[in-house]
Amino acid sequence: MATGKRTAAAREAIDRKKLYKLDDAIKIVRDAATAKFDETIEVAMNLGVDPRHADQMVRGVVSLPNGTGRQVRVAVFAKDAKADEAKAAGADIVGAEDLMEDVLAGKIDFDRCIATPDMMPLVGRLGKVLGPRNLMPNPKVGTVTPDVATAVKAAKGGSVEFRVEKAGILHAGVGKASFTEAALLENIKAFADAVTKAKPAGAKGTYIKRVAVTSTMGPGVHVDPASVH
Known about the structure:
- The chain is α/β, with parallel strands linked by helices.
- Helices cover 33% and strands 21% of the residues.
- It has helices at 3-13, 22-32, 80-89, 97-104, 120-123, 127-130, 148-157, 181-197; strands spanning 40-47, 59-63, 74-77, 93-95, 112-115, 159-163, 169-176, 208-215, 221-223.
- It has a four-stranded antiparallel sheet with strand order 7-1-8-9, covered by helices on one side. Strands 4-3-5 form a three-stranded parallel sheet, sandwiched between helices.
- The longest helix has 17 residues, at 181-197.
């Protein structure tokens, strides 16, 4: 059967009105991930928050127990000994003014950005460039830190940053289709726990309203929110 037919069959097998248990949803999504590359498995959540209000912003970082399965390129703003520590820990790009100039010129060849505290006056000038890409270092998620080695290793090892978007939607890659169902289940539950712990004081009513799991090319499957904990 051709890939297109398999995908179509997978879509037809999904009941759009049904809320699936998480383990069942993972199986369906993995079975439908028939692309010629290792598709990313993503989870999306609709949260009962309005992030336009400061007391309803949801953001954080979580280390997934089984990693993300993707190669993460890490840039570090640091100088002298801290720059050496970052390089030794596996950072892909390390710099200061030179790195700032590259970013301002549109050369953003990294997925995660870390900075030592003394670099923040410099990095602060890049807010309009890095902010919209969700790359701006922030102490709340451990990307502004004097311990650059630990931050680099966490970024490389499978830590995922999350931040709710305007409509109250939050999403993240939580693994690959090549992962076992058990590994994906563990990763998604770890992610959901981190989101739950990040519940802001201003959130009222139902916090996690809707959950869906999907792959890069496959159909989305609606999940019973109660099954993600």
